[in-house]
Structures are given as C-alpha cells and as structure tokens.
Amino acid sequence: MVRFLNCLFLISILSSCVSPPSLESDVFYDRADIQRDEAPHVANSLEWWYATGWLNDVETGDTFGIEFVVFHFSMNGKKDRLLSNVAITDVSADRFYFDHTLVGLEDQLEATLPLQLSTDHGKSKASMSGKFGEYSFIANADHEGESFYYSLKTKPNSPVVFHGNNTGYEDYGGYAKAGYYSYTDLITEGEIEVDGKLRKVKGSIWYDRQWNCGSVLQNRTTGWDWMSLSLNETNEKMMLYRLRLKEGLNIYGGTLIHKDGTYEALKGDELQITDLDYWKSDNSGDRYPSSLAISIPHENIELELKMLKEQQELEIKILLLVKLYYWEGMCEVNGTRNGVNVTGRSYLEITNPENREN
Questions:
Q1: Residue 357: inside a domain, yes or no?
Q2: Is the pLDDT of residue 84 over 50?
Q3: pTM of the predicted protein model
C-alpha cells in the first residue's frame, strides 16, 4: 500500500525458512531516485511492485477491484525468488478470485529498465512490464478450478509521491526503514474476464514501489494494517499504516496528498487508527477488523473505513500442508473533512491479524 505490509505478509511465508532474508545487499541513499529505484535491486532482501485499483465496466458500470503484486527476495544474497499475487473482486456478483505463483530464478535479477517481471507455473501466469507509471499488468490465473484473467495498461495522472517526508525512505519508528514511493492515480484501461465473461474496463490504480524491506522480517510476529484512501469531494489521497510490533505496541504513519499534488508526512502522534468491528473468516479462522476509525485531528479529518465485501481473504499455499492467509480488498470511506461530509474509496491490507491490541 509503506506497502511494507506484504513485507509483513511475507513474514509468514518466509518464516518456514531457516533464517530471515539477508540484509547485506540492501543499499540506502539520502534520497530515493526513481531512475535508479524503479529497477530491481540486486539481491535485495525483499522488494515489490504493487498495484491495487477500482475499475468499472465501460458498458454496465459494474465495479471491480484488482490486485497485482510481484515480490522479489533473496534469502542468502545469492538465490532469487519471485512471488506474484493476483486478485479480482467482482462487487455486483459478490465474488472474489485470487491466485499466486512462487518461482525460483536461475540467475539474479539485474537492475535494468523497463521492467520485465513474470511468474509462470501450471495454470497461473502473471507479468508486469514498463516504467515510471506506464505499465502493463497481465494475469492468467486459476481460483479453485475457475479461470480469471485481466490485461491492463496504465499512465500517470499525477506526479510520483516520495514517502518519508519527501525522501523516499519511510522510517517505521526507528524499528525499520525502507524505500517507498507511489503513483496514487494511474489512469487504467483494459479488459478482465470472470465467470466466463470478457469485459472492457477503465478506472484508477494505486501503485506502490518498495525495497529494502527484509529488516521487518527479523520479528516474525509483526502485523500490519496498510491502507490507501481517495476522497471524492476534496480529491485528496492518503497512505496510512499501523505497524503492530506486539500486542499494545503500534507504530503509525503515512502521507497526506493534497488536491494540488503537494504532500506531507503524517507522524505517529498525529494519527489514530482504531478497530470498530470485526469479521471472522470461516476459511482461516482469523479475525480481521471489518471497520476502522481514522482520526487526523490537526487536519480535521475523521473517517470510517468499512469493508465493501468481507470475503476478500487470500490463501497462499507454499508447501503441500502449509496454508498462509492475509486480507486485502476494497473498502468504502465515509466521514468528515473540516466538518463537511466526505465519501471515498480505499484498499486495505491486513496481515497477522491476531497481533492487535483489542
């Protein structure tokens, strides 16, 4: 979303390995540089290219959510792996489709552009290409024997946002630090296929680029709530997170992006995220917050974020008997900005949900 989250999601995936990823090849600069950091980082501990969005059928207006992510990580600084996750939420049909692919690479990824990232195993294929907001995302996937597909192209509608107070490095309360920038509004067109029906779609994608995320994996009990929000009436956007180190100990932060494209970092003491209600998954047995209260007092922002569809939980099968879960999906937003009612849309990601205060 820092989309650090999945760094946090991958805590679970990689916890089955002997040790967390090696941090020796992670390189930090004073500022992020999109010309350098859009490309893969050689032998990076953990990095990703992440897209979530709201799309509409150009003929019927039906709403769909999409997720596309490629994770790149190196356990020992030598052997590279790629993990792709893809998903579609069909709002009108009340369906959720997801799939994943984990592959090992014979050679290390090189720091080259344009991006050419792909995974291919069995019925599941995912690929991403492009650079600097102009991307192609393609997924040919299988959900419980039912195929789904999308092919999407994007172009930027707003400048890149460098998180971490415009440095492009988000500091998580001194606990961890990672490179992070976003395109918050990528104009998106293409096609999707679910339930055997091919549809032309258009809408907007939020794109996150993060790297050097392996440090958070040193604590395998860490949990993460990450969210992107877009307000309809004010045309403002937000990236917010709650990093849950252990029960009762949370780190908060984010970025507020104004209508004119300027933005500012949100410090931990300026932001409150509170669970309001919960949903328990019949599949995993995990309990996730189904609605959240968001308060940013100095900006006069009071919002409630609520799951648009509760069943947007993803299941990742790494080994034959190992299943791992996290929640990521579409949410609706209601509340006030400077005392005036506002509405909006969001994508929310939740990992390790049992590690929370209430």
A1: no
A2: yes
A3: 0.93
